[in-house]
Amino acid sequence: MLGPVILAASRSDRMRRLVSAAPVTKPVVDRFIPGETVDQIVPIIRELTDQGLELTMDVVGEDITTPAQAEAARDAYLELIDRLKPLELGTRAEMSVKLSMFGQALDGGHDLALKNVRPVVEAAAGIGTTVTLDAEDHTTLDSMFAIHEELRKDFPQTGCVIQAYLFRTEADARRLADSGSRVRLVKGAYKEPAEVAYQQRHEIDKAYVRILRTLMEGEGYPMIGSHDPRLIAIGQELARTAGRKLDEYEFQMLYGIRGDEHLRLAAEGHRMRVYTAYGTDWYGYFMRRLAEKPANLRFFARSMVSKG
What we know:
Elements: H1 2-9, H2 13-21, H3 25-32, H4 38-50, E1 54-59, H5 67-84, E2 93-97, H6 109-126, E3 131-133, H7 141-154, E4 159-163, H8 169-179, E5 182-186, H9 201-217, E6 221-225, H10 229-241, E7 250-254, H11 259-267, E8 272-278, H12 283-292, H13 294-307
């Protein structure tokens, strides 16, 4: 079980320095994070949308320790929105945000995160798009869902993420489906204790299907966050059974993983959204991508051997 080991490494300052300094790291990181600045990412946005794909943009960085850093994260998203405006992409390019970046873990963090994220959601609505609140570890979720509910009062298109491996998620999915929310369903990428989360892959997969059925049969807009071919096929069948049209749900996958599948789904008429991260504070994001899928770790290891 390498995933928990890698997740632990993602929180290690020593490992951060070691991995960041390795000469092979940047070319490998570029597979998942195609730029560090808005100037670098705008051509990527143009390239992907020209291919018929949609995007959700993530400015990476979670180690927020001061209110000033949280405000800087807010401003980074506002800069992105300002650069998206002339592209006139509407919902073809939305944003994903982690509330930890907006100060959620600081003193008074719930109110601070809501204060910082609201102008981002408002600015996104101003250019015809929206924001999805990413899920983090289970201790943050009550706050995230409360902020989601509050934002939806003025911006009902605001989305959120739920994680199939958590025991609570089936109840969360029923509530969100009934309220007509935009919901991205993922398996989950944080190390969670057995008291709150399934630990075995087959249990997580079964929960994913149960939850996805609830979303497809509900009043909201399901977003299938998975690279698993079997779950993608099941998602298509659940959508057909629920009588959903192709524009009434979507698939989401990470930039740099299964790019051919992105294009295949888009060519079939599906809405296919690519989760595209950028920024300088990439370490935590990168390590979670390695932890999620052994193939990613093998890719990194091969690069180290061939270029070391």
